[in-house]
Write the structure tokens for this entry.
Amino acid sequence: MWVKERTPGALLDAMSKGRMYALQRSKEYGLVLNEFTLLSEATGGSAISGQTLRVPTLTPVLLRLAVSSDDGRSHQTAVQVIRSGRLMKEGGTESVPFTLTLRDTAPAAGELSYYRLIIGTGGHSIVSNPIFIRGE
């Protein structure tokens, strides 16, 4: 969950706003989603899971993600970045820990789109809630 403090109120607030991700892990280790942020190069605005970034139509945006493991060791893992149901980055593997920055273009005026992540396979995976983006 994306929380500033680990209190019951902060956890409930994050859940109600969709600022979280699903995690499957083994007892040996789990993946950690350290960052999943959408940034507008035009406005400097940003959004995380559960939020909507409003940006000027067809302007550049950056999607940043960072993943590590809670055991501090390196692990190979699959990475899929999805934009509105279509794979934006597919089939590649990364060595955890890693950071990726992908460039994309904001949707047309009035259109709503979203980004989500599927990282890992089998017993070690992360599935994110979406970050929404609206062209204005």
